[in-house]
Design a protein that fits this description.
four-stranded mixed β-sheet
Length: 341
């Protein structure tokens, strides 16, 4: 790994996520309406699949699985997500400009400790926040760092810190867990389809088609459910980011350049792994295109200038590069367990 100025960087170590205080994210999972909106249809679909396949025993098992998803899905450790995306935490001598952005925006947001920052070795363009409780991190791809200027990166990081402060991360984590569960259901359905085909070739009774069809359709229905969820959290994060960096035009510019990134429904049912080609966790996909998102932000009436923070001042400096991992690793592609980056 090297820095952008060609200097050798320290070898990446296992990322250490610092405690995060003052996040203002003390939302109880049971009080978050978005958790309920997502959990109820997922539980109903699992219950239907379990009942069709195994009767009352399958129904009880499906409800138990749903409870586990809701209990543990929003609590996925940030370290686990960094491992899934092969993200590399910044070493002490790297990314001084990025560290400055995170520190300044976190201070403006009232966080007593800034979230960790890690880089995903991919030329895809994306940024998102992960973690729960007092340990959170912001992940950005190298493709994003190469495309955007330092002030634009500050606006993107401010948007992510706004999500952290608003307590959006548990909802994102649960939705992404539902996606992984749907992918597992698809894999089971594909396996049962193969078994049923072999039985048919040998003239034996085949497996029931309805539970297999429900298993295969799980990723498609999961994606449609998440895309149908309200995008209010993005609108509020854009507004909050405007206040954090003191520049609505800059936040709108970044928003206008954002791709909807919702992928194709056909990707949800393709082999070997059903996964839309979007380098972001599934709950961050949206049908809202960039210009519409920017126009929505610019239409909001802001407080008088005296009630807002002054524009964020940054000292430009070298960013970091993970190009040393090689062009094959940097090319966006499907990876285990069904993530594309």
């Amino acid at each position: 790994m090297t820095t952008a100025d060609g200097a050798p960087a320290e070898r990446a170590t296992a990322p250490q996520i610092p405690p995060l205080a003052g996040a203002g994210a003390g939302l109880s999972l049971l009080r978050d309406r978005r958790i309920i909106v997502l959990a109820v249809p997922v539980t109903a679909y699992l219950a239907l699949t379990g009942y069709v396949a195994f009767g009352s025993v399958g129904l009880a098992l499906a409800v138990a699985v749903s409870v586990l998803l809701v209990m543990f899905g929003p609590r996925i450790p940030a370290e686990a997500m960094l491992s899934v995306y092969r993200a590399r935490a910044l070493s002490p001598g790297q990314g001084s400009s990025l560290r400055e952005i995170v520190a300044k925006v976190s201070a403006r947001a009232g966080l007593t400790e800034p979230p960790a920052l890690a880089i995903i070795p991919s030329l895809a363009i994306g940024a998102f926040s992960v973690g729960h409780g007092q340990r959170k991190a912001i992940l950005v791809t190298e493709g994003l760092l190469r495309r955007h200027s330092l002030p634009e990166i500050a606006a993107i990081i401010a948007h992510e810190i706004a999500h952290i402060r608003a307590g959006d991360l548990p909802v994102f984590a649960l939705a992404d867990t539902v996606t992984r569960a749907a992918q597992a259901m698809f894999t089971i359905g594909a396996g049962l389809t193969l078994v049923s085909g072999v039985l048919w070739l040998f003239g034996e009774p085949t497996l029931p088609w309805l539970p297999i069809a429900l298993l295969l359709a799980a990723p498609l229905l999961s994606s449609q459910l998440q895309l149908a969820m309200p995008r209010e959290h993005d609108r509020l994060a854009d507004l909050d980011a405007t206040g954090l960096i003191g520049d609505r035009g800059l936040v709108a510019k970044v928003a206008a350049a954002t791709s909807p990134g919702c992928g194709s429904p056909l990707d949800d049912i393709r082999l070997p792994v059903p996964q839309r080609r979007v380098p972001l966790p599934s709950p961050l996909r949206a049908h809202i295109d960039g210009p519409a998102r920017a126009a929505r932000l610019l239409a909001v009436r802001l407080p008088p200038d005296g009630d807002t923070l002054p524009p964020l001042r940054l000292v430009d400096g070298p960013l970091i590069s993970l190009a040393g991992v090689g062009p094959v690793e940097m090319r966006p592609r499907n990876r285990w367990p069904g993530v594309w980056f």
